[in-house]
Design goal:
heterodimer; A: alpha/beta; Rossmann fold; 6-stranded parallel sheet; 4-stranded parallel sheet; 12 strands; 48% helix; globular; B: mainly alpha; ABC transporter involved in vitamin B12 uptake, BtuC; two-stranded antiparallel ribbon; 4 strands; 72% helix; 2% strand
């Protein structure tokens, strides 16, 4: 019996390991396929090498474009370690960041850069995220670029330090302390970017209000309390409420970004306020839960629901008329272009220390998706993998 | 509890007296969870009468009761053994996620219908069986084994849908959460049926009596020839079944499969079991206690949401009330060892 169970355990372990390896195997193929390009690409690279020395002093960052011919053959043949450090792959939004990284590595394939990519999953733990980054940076020995979504503001400097110690390059998103900036860790902390959450929260409030004729009872589902994104999105709502007192918040609670908790809360609240006209959710996961609760009460499509993140479910719900609006923070853009900027820094095409501060800390675009533009959004982002030109590295700078 | 007045003459009478007092105390303890529940219901009815005591809210409470009840029933037997199962969040999430990718859904072309539900639940049963077997045969504490399976379950769940959750589009499954029979939602019926099955196992089968015996002192049933290992494996497997059903219902209720279906189920379930009066050290309690305990936890959640308590202090209040309920309901005394 004991032996049998041991064998069962080992078999299941092997099965799970093979299951885990399948996607990785695919990436191996994709890295190998374009390897044949390397030889063709590297020829002009050699020729162009002297041009790099006579780089103009003033760089037009806004229109800066990676010129693969300016990257030395040596760099192209060095294995570059590419990573995205995120909090848990069970979140649809975070998956779009990883997909952004995949799109970017396809670009690396196209220019013949050797690389190895990795996803660092912190599972929502600060310590783990810093440890992951340290190990990743140490392994890469300076040839590392990493997109990082710090689990909490406080650990952003520790992540930058971990990267700086090995000489790699890091770009952070969403969270960082107000008084620490990328230029405090020259040149390794290249950029910090964030979509403007206050604006996002405000815009969906406005869309909600418009959808219900400017006034009425609404429910508010907040994100995880104390989380920067949750606080900022709520600030956007507050700002709109202050301007439009006709919107009456009758119930307000946190559902911790969670679909199930949102479903339970809305189900309960509907008994207290059956005349609710709209539901404001700080993310789409919770909005989806709210829609499910409305469905059960026979109110789906009759109560306006707004969220943020533009998950596939929510986009479909908007298309079908069950939801009103969401905001796309565009994880593809965040993940892909952050890595593109880091790549340019690693390849020596830009010098972070010389870059103006507005190019090291900036907002990435966010887009309000409503029924007016949802068809276009589906065509651009859902039906096909979005297409980006990663050679224009500052494309994702909003202003 | 006053000191027994021992104005007795013989040892026999003294013994009978002691038994009588002990019996009275256990009767009080037995009714304490129900009193706590009544107190909560009265309190919320006073504070939020129109909405809390409405028929709609009763249905909502029944709806919200289903999954915690299933999970807590499974956990009850495990706790009665004196073991613990920490895999709940993972196993439930796994069953729910697997269900969503096996039936007609938005991610792949599978359309197994009922078979998909059965397979998803079977996966969870298998996990329960493995937890029990590894715990018993390799002599690893259930705490550690199930903790490992918490992550394995979450891992399988996340892997099964690859990040973006699968929406269930099977028309039958989409209708199920809205089905109401005799005023009680369908998913609650399933939970009630499984509760009755659990009660039957506990009261009318040898397994039920073995669970009590093993939880009290496993050397005694072992010495009279009960296969203790088999009892334990059965209990963990049965718990796996209930967690699997909970996961399946969670996915049906949510309309999609995601790992978060299991999120934050474990500790409320443990609280429900303990509030109901089942002892964490094993051998005492039962599923009826757990039913009351689960209703307490769900009513508390529902009532606080209706009362509109400031979210920043809500969780704190919730913890305080649960602690109070436990303090009122668990049996104490110089004979009870608390670890």
């Amino acid at each position: 019996m004991k032996k049998g169970i041991l064998i069962l355990l080992v078999v299941s372990l092997i099965l799970s390991i093979t299951a885990c390896n399948t996607p990785a195997a695919k990436t191996d193929n994709s890295t190998q396929a374009p390897a044949s390009n390397t030889s063709e690409q590297s020829k002009p690279a050699e020729a162009a090498q002297p041009a790099e020395a006579s780089k103009p002093a003033v760089i037009d960052y806004k229109n800066f474009q990676i010129d693969p011919s300016k990257i030395s053959k040596e760099k192209l043949n060095t294995t570059l370690y590419v990573a995205a450090s995120v909090r848990g792959l069970d979140n649809p939004y975070i998956v779009t960041i990883i997909q952004g990284m995949d799109l970017f590595t396809k670009y690396l394939d196209s220019i013949g850069q050797k690389y190895e990519k990795q996803t660092l999953d912190s599972g929502g733990s600060n310590d783990k995220e810093v440890d992951n980054m340290k190990q990743f940076a140490a392994k890469a020995n300076g040839n590392a670029i990493a997109y990082s979504d710090p689990n909490e503001s406080a650990i952003a400097p520790a992540l930058a330090e971990a990267m700086a110690a090995s000489g790699g390059f890091i770009g952070t998103a969403w969270n960082k302390p107000d008084d620490v900036n990328p230029w405090d860790y020259d040149p390794n902390w290249v950029i910090h970017t964030s979509p403007d959450n206050v604006v996002g929260g405000y815009n969906i409030s406005k869309a909600l209000s418009d959808a219900i004729g400017g006034g009425g009872e609404i429910f508010v589902l907040e994100g995880m309390l104390g989380n920067t994104a949750a606080t900022d999105r709520a600030k956007g709502l507050e700002k709109y409420l202050a301007e439009n007192p006709n919107l009456k918040v009758v119930n307000r609670d946190t559902a911790n970004w969670d679909t199930k908790q949102a479903l339970t809360l809305v189900e309960t609240w509907l008994n207290k306020n059956p005349n609710v006209k709209g539901i404001w959710a700080a993310n789409d996961n919770m909005a989806t839960g709210a829609i499910q609760a409305l469905d059960k009460a026979g109110l789906k499509g009759k109560v306006a629901v707004v969220g943020i993140d533009a998950t596939t479910d929510m986009i479909k719900a908007i298309d079908q008329g069950f939801a009103t609006a969401t905001v796309s923070s565009n994880g593809y853009l965040q993940g892909g272009y952050t890595l593109a900027i880091l790549y340019a820094a690693w390849a020596g095409l830009i010098d972070p220390a010389q870059m103006p501060q507005e190019y090291r800390k900036f907002a990435t675009p966010s887009m309000l998706v409503t029924k007016d533009n949802v068809k276009q959004y589906i065509a651009d982002y859902i039906d096909k993998a979005p297409q980006f030109d990663f050679s224009k590295i500052f494309y994702a700078k909003a202003d | 509890m006053n000191k027994p007045s021992l104005q007795t003459l013989t040892i026999n009478e003294e013994f009978a007296d002691k038994i009588r007092i002990e019996y009275r105390n256990t009767q009080i303890i037995k009714w304490a969870p129900i009193l706590v529940l009544l107190a909560l219901i009265i309190f919320f009815s006073v504070v939020r009468g129109n909405s809390f005591a409405s028929l709609n809210n009763l249905v909502a409470i029944l709806n919200q009761l289903a999954i915690p009840l299933l999970v807590a029933c499974g956990l009850t037997f495990v706790i009665m053994l004196g073991s613990i199962d920490l895999s709940i969040d993972g196993t439930v999430g796994m069953a729910g996620s697997l269900l969503a990718v096996l039936v007609l859904n938005s991610k792949n072309t599978n359309d197994l219908g009922i078979l998909g539900i059965v397979l998803a639940i079977l996966a969870s049963v298998l996990v329960g069986f493995i937890i029990g077997s590894v715990h018993v045969k390799l002599k690893i504490p259930s705490f550690m084994v199930s903790f490992g399976f918490l992550y394995i379950g979450k891992g399988i769940a996340t892997l099964s849908y690859g990040g973006i959750p699968a929406q269930i589009s099977d028309s039958l499954l989409m209708k199920l959460p809205k089905v109401v029979f005799l005023g009680i939602p369908f998913i609650t019926w399933i939970a009630i049926i499984m509760f009755v099955v659990s009660f039957f196992i506990q009261e009318y089968t040898p397994l039920g009596r073995h669970i009590f015996a093993v939880g009290t002192d496993e050397n005694i049933p072992r010495s009279v020839g009960v296969n203790v290992d088999r009892v334990k494996i059965k209990v963990f497997t049965y718990a796996g079944l209930l967690f699997g059903i909970a996961g399946a219902l969670g996915a049906i209720r949510l309309g999609q499969g995601q790992a978060q279906i299991g999120q934050d189920l474990m500790f409320p379930a443990q609280a429900a079991v303990v509030v109901g009066g089942t002892s964490l050290s094993g051998g005492k309690g039962g599923v009826v206690n757990t039913l009351i305990g689960t209703i307490i936890i769900v009513v508390l959640d529902n009532g606080l949401a209706l009362a509109g308590v400031n979210p920043y202090i809500k969780t704190g209040i919730q913890g305080f009330i649960i602690l109070t309920a436990v303090a009122l309901t668990i049996s104490r005394g110089h004979k009870v060892i608390s670890k």
